[in-house]
Design a protein that fits this description.
Length: 779
């Protein structure tokens, strides 16, 4: 019979050699349990209850993930695992067939059997053949007693499994492989492959390479020292890990023997050992996957977990040892010398194997680190097309990266990272992304700070977590806590460029010029530091009204970025300069610099800056065209939708004498108005702009009190604005608002504050000339 959707959950279903118990969420094959994840079992149940019908992908997604945003790749992955559990091969889909463009169908006819007939099989994990003959009197009860005693003994013995060597709270060190083959292609490559394989496990937690390198330095070893078994055990003890995993590869004629041992850190006792032999070099990665899965099970991970999270390396990375070697070397260089040094090797990996998804994703991540958003998006987009060639943790990583850097959809990225953190509680990257752009852009700064603390707890030697903790503390106005994060990082010997940027911002907020100068000197001692420090110094000069100095320094930053081949970075510095000129009233200069931006880069932040500068300069039709193009290209981008477009459209409406329409455009920005958009982080402009333009719209509508409230909001959050010139101009606009509100004394005070800040500003700035004339009229 065909089973309908209304079949009772108390019934047991059968097809072929399989039996499905919905109440116990159990799949049995010939009486033996078949491990399935809960979601995979739910998919099977839907297909079983609608056997021989086509079930659309959409119906399956709604049935299994009713209230959660997930990618279709999750469904594909679950179908793959279900087919694997049912014993299907890629060439023989005996039970589940794909109906192209529609969904899936269980082709077997399903039978329903009474629960009583299946209860013994469903309750037992082993087959027991017992013959009972009717025996009168006491002997009958003795036989039943014996049977019950046997069942009880079986249950007792089942509980007496040896204690597993590790628990899910333990961490492990992965040593370098011992390579006695003489073939350098295995050097570093097999350790990288093993890291990917073990990284699929929700049970094992590998100590990060960043933490290993820092520990090596504390031991007096080079940061890139080879992790021999003895050095790995020394590192293991220092970081309080539980075990060291030692791999080996040996040549036996034309064949290879791959081994993996797990040893206790302190005593060196063997916890688990596995090896396998493969016939040729091309099979080494498959052999690596096999020994990894066996050792995981020996160390205490459940068979169901190992089965679910054990895709072969050639399925989720690459089948090319040469590509994997280039990829591995890329990450080694990334750790030692940064993103620029790693990119050629990531690019080489993609050239050797164009289907290597994580190589494309890593190349995109490196571009993003250098603020080259268009190149980053192109590489991540290519990786996205290859996402079926990823392990589950890597798929989480890529999906979050795709939503954040390509689509710009922080709501989707947040859901993905939160699901990722639940599935892999000690996954640093999930909390790192939640502590970064995802929650910063949305203005959820307390949550971002909490995620940074979680990331530090997982790995106290990951430098970016301290930067996230410090920057989020600064945005929240907790300046001492921000400095404390830098001090904590320094105490662990951590030092990255972002710490200098944060220290410089803290110095500006505190008015500490001596410290700012020290941070600038530190930056210029680093490769590429001249450009980004010059950009920051230009913004600080502009904040004080030193526009000529700001122009000179900003131009130097642009040229330095171009000389380094970073056109997108150059466009960001130029966009910030264009916005400054427009805010200060220099319309011609603003238009010229915005035109330069449009020639340099089509990146969204640069284009936003150009559109805003052109709108502020009064060219509404041109600004509208750029805004429309942004909306077309980035329909899901949260910053575009909730900050960039509302700001540009508000200025256009004000140009047309429509303040109410400007306020209407800005309404959508209100829930996220205290967020920190990417333009502010990478281009140093754009923080709190919706608030600033809402204040100007209220001024245009002659609502002085409402306008004053908006400008006061900006002045109340100096650690979000930092050195963006609207922090200075808000004082001037506040004075104008008080004039409209009829509060003459407050207006005079606000004007005095602004003129004191700009006491030695360039005298020919239009905004300054207007301020002096307006202040004089109040006397």
């Amino acid at each position: 019979m065909t089973v309908g959707d209304t079949a009772s959950a108390r019934e047991i279903y059968e097809f072929g050699p399989f039996r499905i118990d919905p109440e116990r969420a159990m799949l049995l094959r010939a009486g033996q349990p078949v491990p399935l994840t809960p979601k995979t079992f739910q998919i099977l149940l839907v297909l079983v209850r609608r056997s021989q019908e086509v079930v659309t992908k959409d119906d399956l997604m709604k049935a299994v993930w009713p209230d959660t945003f997930v990618e279709e790749a999750n469904l594909s992955r679950s179908i793959f695992m279900l087919r694997k559990a049912l014993g299907e091969t890629p060439q023989d889909h005996r039970y589940i067939v794909t109906v192209p463009g529609r969904g899936y169908r269980l082709v077997e006819r399903v039978r329903v059997v009474p629960e009583e007939a299946a209860s013994v099989a469903a309750a037992s994990h082993t087959r027991v053949d017992v013959q009972i003959r009717e025996t009168p009197g006491p002997k009958r009860f003795l036989l039943w007693g014996a049977l019950l005693s046997t069942v009880a003994l079986g249950g007792f013995l089942a509980l007496r499994h040896p204690t597993p060597p590790l628990t899910e709270k333990d961490t492990v060190i992965l040593a370098d492989f011992s390579n006695s083959t003489g073939d350098p292609v295995f050097d570093g490559t097999l350790r990288q492959g093993m890291a990917v394989q073990l990284g699929q496990s929700p049970f094992l937690s590998l100590v990060s390479d960043e933490r290993v390198r820092r520990t090596l330095k504390l031991m007096g070893q080079p940061a890139d020292a080879r992790l021999t078994p003895q050095i790995a055990r020394d590192v293991c003890e220092r970081v309080s890990a539980s075990a060291v995993l030692e791999g080996s590869i040996t040549g036996v004629g034309s064949e290879y023997v791959i081994g993996l041992q797990a040893r206790n850190c302190q005593a060196g006792d063997m916890l688990a050992e596995e090896q396998t032999q493969v016939a040729k070099k091309e099979d080494v990665l498959t052999g690596l996957s096999q020994v990894a899965s066996r050792v995981r099970a020996r160390l205490g991970e459940s068979l169901a977990s190992v089965e679910t999270h054990s895709s072969r390396l050639d399925e989720v990375t690459t089948s090319s040892l040469d590509a994997l070697r280039a990829y591995s070397m890329g990450w080694q260089l990334h750790a030692a010398r940064g993103a620029s040094a790693s990119m050629p090797l990531f690019r080489r990996a993609t050239e050797i194997d164009p289907q290597f998804a994580m190589a494309h994703a890593s190349l995109g991540r490196a571009y993003a680190d250098l603020d080259q958003s268009d190149l980053a998006a192109a590489s991540i987009e290519r990786a996205w097309q290859l996402r079926d060639h990823l392990s589950e943790p890597e798929r989480f990583f890529l999906t979050a990266l795709y939503q954040l850097l390509v689509k710009g959809n922080i709501e989707a990225a947040q859901q993905i990272c939160e699901t990722w953190a639940q599935a892999y509680p000690r996954e640093l990257r999930a909390h790192s992304m939640l502590s970064g752009g995802i929650n910063k852009i949305a203005g959820r700064l307390e949550r971002a700070r909490a995620e940074a603390l979680k990331a530090i707890d997982i790995d106290p030697d990951f430098a970016m977590s301290y930067y996230s903790l410090g920057s989020n503390s600064l945005y929240l106005g907790r300046v001492e806590d921000a400095d404390g994060a830098l001090a904590a990082a320094a105490a662990r010997g951590l030092d990255i460029d972002e710490f200098i940027m944060l220290g410089y911002d803290i110095a500006f907020v505190n008015g500490d010029k001596a410290r700012a100068d020290r941070e600038a000197d530190r930056a210029r001692a680093r490769s590429g530091g001249e450009s980004w420090m010059s950009a920051r110094e230009a913004v600080v000069e502009a904040y004080a009204g030193h526009l000529q100095a700001a122009r000179r320094i900003s131009q130097r930053a642009v040229v330095q970025a171009q000389q380094a081949g970073q056109e997108e970075t150059a466009s960001l510095w130029e966009a910030g300069a264009a916005v400054r000129e427009a805010l200060f009233g220099n319309k011609t200069a603003a238009t010229e610099r915005a035109s330069n931006v449009l020639q340099l880069s089509p990146g969204r932040e640069a284009q936003y800056g150009a559109a805003l500068a052109i709108a502020l300069a009064g060219d509404s039709s041109r600004a509208q065209a750029i805004a429309d193009d942004l909306e077309r290209r980035f329909p899901e981008d949260s910053s575009v939708r909730f900050s960039y477009l509302p700001s540009v459209r508000a200025v256009i409406a004000l140009n047309r004498g429509e303040p109410e329409r400007a306020l209407e455009s800005l309404q959508i920005a209100m829930p996220r108005e205290l967020g920190v958009p990417p333009s502010s982080i990478s281009g140093l402009f754009g923080a709190l702009y919706p608030i600033y333009f809402r204040g100007q719209a209220n001024l245009a509508a002659h609502r002085g009190a409402e306008a004053a409230a908006e400008f006061q909001k900006i002045l109340a959050h100096p650690t979000i604005v930092i050195s963006d010139p609207i922090g200075a101009l808000a004082r001037l606009e506040l004075g104008r608002a008080y004039v409209l509100a009829g509060e003459r004394a407050k207006a005079q005070s606000a004007y005095r504050d602004f003129l004191a800040l700009w006491r030695d500003a360039d005298p020919n700035i239009p905004a300054l000339r207007e301020a002096r004339a307006e202040e004089a009229g109040l006397k």
